[in-house]
Write a structure and sequence with these properties.
The complex is a heterodimer of chains A (364) and B (198). Chain A has 364 residues and is an alpha+beta fold. Chain A has one domain. Chain A has nine helices and nine strands. Chain A has a nine-stranded antiparallel sheet with strand order 4-3-2-1-9-8-7-6-5, covered by helices on one side. Chain A is globular and about 75 Å long. Chain A starts with 11 loop residues before the first helix and ends in a 9-residue tail after the last strand. Chain B has two domains: 66 residues; 96 residues, Winged helix-like DNA-binding domain superfamily/Winged helix DNA-binding domain (Arc Repressor Mutant, subunit A, Orthogonal Bundle). Chain B has 198 residues and is mainly alpha-helical. Classes of the chains: A alpha+beta (364), B mainly alpha (198). At the A-B interface, helix 1, helix 2 and helix 3 of A face helix 1, helix 2, helix 3, helix 5 and helix 6 of B.
Chain lengths: 364, 198
């Protein structure tokens, strides 16, 4: 029997087909992809650069099997043929919490009622972003270190976006050690400062990092770069805006939608009516909950609303009485290698104003 | 801070040769990730199972940290990323071999459960070949295994494999030839042995 198989040399095609079928039953968990993306973007420091920042250690190991040493794991292979077995998380069917919806409604209404400070001709919108980003490093011998470091980014956006903008970045030196201490890090030979760029950049359209002037003002806008044209093109119906957000945010994680919304809100450049619509759209975000009633972000307090994807929680902090976007933060949703659940991994607060000259700061 | 990688020679127009050196990495790497994260994850998962979940993220973090070393004129971003992923896999060589052996053993057990009446269809033949093959990659030199699986599982062509591994394309071709010959021999020997047992 099977004589035709005996001693027969395979063809390349047969070999290829056999290889194709080997361990073929793998699936990619979108939660993993979304988590890796968040970690990557965090490591880029929002368009910045870091020396040792890596959230690799920060990402929680998903429970699940490792390559087997025993029969139990082999049974998994035989029964399911699964190399990666995961429960699909997907976009959570649970609606936003009632309290979150009420907060967003109030914020949306307040936002529309508030007087948006207009930027007159020759004036600038001033946006100050105070960001605390995590830098972690390995000191050898199993010693890990992590610190939150304060970065201040100040942007002057002219009334006409095609005029010159100014960006100032400063690493203030303020730090909060989250794992280990500065002394221990020094002793282990780990860098205890820097990691992000500092200096001044000038360019039209806020294209500070364009490689050549030809690239200035060519970006059509996005949640990460909410140009006036891009904002004008957004749906005004909250349902449609939610669909747009869901379509634009990659992956299947609800948390990613909030990340994208936070990207736009954090810019400080979103018009009040668009901001109100984003709040209304977020009220449709499944799994969105009030995570803290009085969240304190660098001395400014507001209501924190967040989505937890099982690894990390993305929060936005808003003031429901004024509709102001105060800031955002990322919190460890579960114990990680380096961080306990609840550890704040990064936070950013935003203030805006109108000034008469580029480089000038608002009074007070 | 960033080094100009295209001085004197503009980046080729080819689609997958992005300029990663500009100081706008958040956006650039976001796009790179959206375009390229899933296939390497699958490739990594086929090689080391659940560890892929960590390695895919690490691949992109390493890519970000070493972006100044990426030369668009020397290869596609895809090949470069697979090269990084493959490098990271080397740390898990023992784990991969354990996994492949376990897979082979499991496949062997499953083979024993199937009745002779199932031998008819070509589909079964292909499945049987896979079972027979399962243990083979474990026995390969790591470099040969990389060439084989980057070709077969990641779907890279020989040029891309060369870019990914940083070896001449001729080396890739000869390794691939050698490893295929070896595997065909392994598979037929195994088939012979197994059929002889029955």
């Amino acid at each position: 029997m099977s004589d035709d198989n005996i001693l027969r040399i395979w063809t390349d095609d047969e070999l290829g087909a056999a290889l194709d079928a080997l361990n073929a039953d793998t699936r990619t968990d979108e939660r993993v992809i979304a988590g890796a993306r968040v970690a990557l973007i965090a490591a880029t420091g929002e368009q910045g650069e870091t020396e040792v920042t890596t959230t690799r250690k920060a990402r929680r190991r998903r429970s699940g099997w490792r390559w087997p040493a025993g029969a139990a794991a082999v049974a998994v292979l035989v029964a399911g043929g699964q190399v990666v077995q995961t429960v699909s998380f997907g976009r959570n069917p649970a609606p936003a919490g009632a309290e979150a919806v009420a907060t967003l409604d109030r914020a949306a209404t307040s936002s529309i009622g508030v007087l948006d400070e207009e930027v007159g001709p020759g004036q600038y919108r001033y946006v100050a972003t105070r960001a605390w980003w995590m830098a972690s490093a390995h000191g050898g011998e199993g010693r890990d270190f992590a610190r939150l470091a304060e970065n201040v980014l100040e942007t002057w956006a002219p009334a006409n976006p095609r005029d010159e903008w100014l960006l100032r970045r400063d690493v203030t030196g303020n730090q909060r050690w989250v794992v280990g201490t500065e002394e221990q890090a020094r002793a282990a030979g780990v860098s205890t400062d820097g990691g992000w760029p500092e200096g001044e950049w000038r360019a039209p359209c806020g294209d500070f990092y364009a490689r050549s002037p030809e690239q200035w003002c060519t970006d059509r806008g996005s949640w990460q770069n909410p140009t006036p044209e891009w904002q004008a093109g957004l749906p005004t119906d909250p349902d449609a805006l939610f669909e747009r957000l869901a379509a634009d945010a990659p992956g299947d994680s609800d948390a990613e939608l909030l990340v994208y919304a936070a990207d736009a809100l954090r810019s400080g450049l979103v018009r009040k009516d668009v901001r109100a619509n984003i709040y209304k759209a977020l009220a449709k975000l499944p799994g969105l909950q009030v995570t803290e009633q009085q969240a304190n972000l660098d001395g400014r307090t507001g209501t924190a609303l967040g989505v937890d994807d099982g690894k990390e929680r993305q929060d936005i902090i808003i003031d429901p009485e004024t509709g102001q976007f105060i800031g955002e933060r990322q919190v460890a949703g579960a114990d990680m290698d380096l961080f306990k659940a609840g550890t704040v991994l990064a936070f950013t607060s935003v203030t805006t104003g109108v000034v008469d000259a580029i480089g000038a700061k608002p009074a007070g | 801070m960033t080094e100009c990688v295209t001085a004197g020679s503009p980046a080729p127009a080819a689609d997958d040769r992005p300029d990663l050196s500009g100081p706008h990495p958040g956006r650039v790497f976001g796009q790179l990730f959206d375009r390229h994260a899933r296939p390497p994850h699958r490739y990594l998962a086929r090689r080391v199972g659940d560890l892929a979940d960590d390695l895919v993220g690490e691949t992109f973090l390493v890519a970000f940290q070493t972006r100044a070393a990426y030369r668009p004129d020397r290869g596609t971003a895809r090949a470069w990323l697979y090269g990084i992923a493959t490098n990271l896999l080397r740390r898990h060589h023992r784990q991969e071999v354990r996994g492949l052996r376990a897979a082979a053993w499991a496949a062997g057990s499953a083979a024993g459960d199937e009745g002779h009446e199932n031998r008819v269809a070509a589909r079964v033949d292909a499945a049987a070949r896979t079972r027979h093959l399962a243990g083979a990659p474990a026995g390969l030199e790591p470099g040969d295994r990389d060439v084989l699986l980057l070709t077969s599982w990641a779907g890279l062509d020989t040029n891309e494999v060369a870019e990914a591994l940083g070896v001449p394309v001729g080396t890739v071709r000869s390794r691939l030839h050698r490893v295929r010959r070896k595997l065909r021999g392994h598979a037929s020997n195994t088939e012979h042995a197994r059929t002889g047992d029955e």
